[in-house]
Design a protein that fits this description.
Length: 95
Amino acid sequence: MAVVWLNRPSLAIESGLQSSSGEMHEVALLYTEVFALRKAELSKRRRAKKTRVRLGGSLTVQEAQDLLDQKAVREQLAQETLQSGSRAGGSRTKI
């Protein structure tokens, strides 16, 4: 095959351009894939941080459910306090 390239230099140049063009395309695809994977990993880490309690570490499913239940109770008490305060003529006791 080298003999053909010596007789036709334009074929050798064309062949070299085709292979480098294919390699550049492959590099572009790999770059895109790496970028997508890094973005997904960063997103995963951010979600993991949000699910941890600052001082207590990771939560179990039961602990998370308990925290949500406690929050719901606090919100319900606050709502009932506001409603009872408005019925009593606006007089509220500060705690």
